[in-house]
């Protein structure tokens, strides 16, 4: 393993941490409707759990309402039940073949709770990135011990890994700030 491999590996894993953070932030609702909120809702379909988007058409009726149109009529009740039982706190209303999912307005107190959740997600992502930095530095120390690289090379590589870490932490801070601003806008 070379210094370039260590850096490339660390950067790839840090990128995955950012993607994971984006996915978890997209599940936190902001009061405005967007079909991505229902992405992690799964329904029973012919004996297997599948994402809602694979059995129904999701679209926005207006800024506060999502419409879910099942591709098969018999799926309407199953979909409605799955949305109701999800941890999103939504109350779908069935209207024949169409299911309307109104987004309840967020209270000020709930908005503050959600910003704390967002900060927690951001902190978890930062911890993950810092752990990856530690792992990369340990791999560099191992390379020095095995006499594959010099100590000067190790020091330069550790500086590069730190710059990489700083870049990803700044990206995490930016994502968290954007999500907080989105939540706090009424």
TrEMBL record:
Residues 126-167 form a coiled coil. Keywords: Coiled coil, Cytoplasm, Protein biosynthesis. It comes from the Bacteria. It is found in: Cytoplasm. InterPro entries: Ribosome_recyc_fac, Ribosome_recyc_fac_dom, RRF_sf. Residues 21-184 form the Ribosome recycling factor domain. Gene3D superfamilies: 3.30.1360.40, Ribosome-recycling factor. HAMAP family: RRF. Belongs to the RRF family. NCBIfam families: frr. Responsible for the release of ribosomes from messenger RNA at the termination of protein biosynthesis. May increase the efficiency of translation by recycling ribosomes from one round of translation to another. This is Ribosome-recycling factor. The gene is frr.
